[in-house]
Amino acid sequence: MPSLEAQLKALKQQNVAYNTGKFITQDADCLRVLEAADKLSHRPESVLITGESGTGKELVAERLHGRRTGRFIALNLSAMPDALVQAELFGHVKGSYSGATSSRMGLLVAASRGTLFLDEIGDITPAIQVMLLRLIETRKFRRIGENEDTDFTGRFIFATNRLSSDFRDDLYHRIATFRLKLKPLRERMEDARLILQNTLTKAEYEDFLALLHAGAKASQWASPPLLKGNVRELLRLATQYKVLGPHSLDFHWEGDR
């Protein structure tokens, strides 16, 4: 089988993207991340995916999930109160607290034999860090209001765009048995063109690029612009263009926010 570098060179000559499912890329570093995700898809260890918001961390997590028999369950922990994190993960039994009129299955049960993807793990409080450390170490949990432990039979995948200064070292080493890092879109600009080519028609693509060039600030233009929202923002602009036309485009240049 040809090496990754040989495959990349051939693909660039053909001007097509590597067959990566939903993740469109020709970038060598991103291809290595996807290749590593494929190798790790059958492993039980935790994986930490890092990268700026909008770079495709959940797509990599779905690739890591592979063909597991259980479900892929995602939970974004950003700005989530501690009580809600516990309720979402553990679930509760009827009558365990005021308002608990029925029992509820938590996400740890829903992800049995599958994958639990916890996004924005860097935002959790110290109390939740302690709780999560115990959960990862013992692989046991207890529904709120219940006395018996339940085994977690799935796999953990985590993602973040940053880790807080008070993030525990012992927890980091537990969640980052393997670490995959995604580059921002501004460091793989050819991918931006590929994404647009896969989203727009040829005529729309050419017109869209012309509009980007015309709207760019000369000191900040780098074909296409340095979008702070990465792929997510690029797709937002492409959707605006397709649905509402060229005058709807809402650019956000570096330093505008």
Write the layout of secondary structure elements.
Elements: H1 4-14, H2 28-40, E1 47-50, H3 57-65, E2 72-76, H4 82-90, E3 91-92, E4 104-105, H5 107-110, E5 115-119, H6 126-138, E6 140-141, E7 150-151, E8 155-160, H7 169-175, E9 178-181, H8 189-199, H9 202-215, H10 230-244
Parallel strand pairs: 1-8, 1-9, 2-5, 5-8
Antiparallel strand pairs: 3-4, 6-7
List keywords for this structure.
alpha/beta; Rossmann fold; 2 domains; five-stranded parallel β-sheet
Can you give a write-up of this model?
By secondary structure, the protein is an alpha/beta fold. It has 2 domains: 4-181, P-loop containing nucleotide triphosphate hydrolases (Rossmann fold), CATH 3.40.50; 187-248. It has 10 helices and 9 strands. The strands form 3 sheets. A 5-stranded parallel sheet has the order 2-5-8-1-9. Strands 3-4 form a two-stranded antiparallel sheet. β6 and β7 (150-151) form a beta hairpin. The longest helix is centred in the last third of the chain and has 15 residues, at 230-244.
Q: Roughly how much helix do the residues carry, as a percent range?
A: 40-55%
Q: Low-confidence parts, pLDDT < 50 over ≥5 residues? A: 11-19, 217-224, 253-257
- Give the spatial strand order of the biggest sheet: 2-5-8-1-9
What is the CATH T-level topology of the largest domain?
Answer: Rossmann fold
Give me a quick take on this structure:
Helix content is 41%, strand content 12%. The protein is an alpha/beta fold. The strands form three sheets. It has a five-stranded parallel sheet with strand order 2-5-8-1-9. It has a two-stranded antiparallel sheet with strand order 3-4. It has a two-stranded antiparallel ribbon with strand order 6-7.
